[in-house]
Amino acid sequence: MLVEQIEARGETSASVLQAMRSVRRELFVPEEFRAYAYSDSPLPIGLGQTISQPFIVALMTQLLEPARGQRVLEIGTGSGYQAAILSTLVKEVDTIEIIPELGRSAAERLRRLDYVNVQVRIGDGYLGWPEKAPFDRIILTAAPPEIPPVLIDQLKHGGRLIAPVGVGMQDLMVVDKAKDGKTTTRSVLPVQFVPMKKAALP
Ligand code: SAH
Fold this sequence. Notes:
25% of the residues lie in helices and 28% in strands. The protein is of the alpha/beta class and 202 residues long.
């Protein structure tokens, strides 16, 4: 039903719709919110965090232009739902979560549901994942005040980064890194994500 509504908006490819159909969102939300798993709204996942609205997950997945051979970095694992969707479309998803409890439960859930090409790291997304860089695609699902330059550095030439950017109401931004390394940025629509946390300074 929900995927049909997303399909009706006409902006989502068949492969992304198929990915949305194949991942059972109810398995990524706490028991008490399962009844709402297929309504088009964000839901609490504990510790003050939320699983994004399905329409936004579909839109961001679409904007990422995922393809089979790619490696994708996600910042903000949360429940693992966005990572699961992406894992059906690309070669490998590496995802970073700053809240250890959330990262651990997402990793356990993804393993249990057999999303074998997702790796969860507990850490600070502002640092990216240097050992695994560069990435074909990077997606942020928590909002930084500005696009972190470190993450642009970890993007391949010819790659794309998607992020909600700003304080309070944010803009969903698409950053393209050309073959020569130059970046162009455009804003797609206003969104509201949880803010990206700064790790405590040493
Ligand atoms: N993509 C998730 C939803 C993400 S909610 C899903 O599909 O369920 C945003 C997540 O980003 C939260 O879990 C939050 O703890 C995490 N986060 C916030 N700041 C972060 C940072 N600096 N590094 C990594 N994760 C961060």
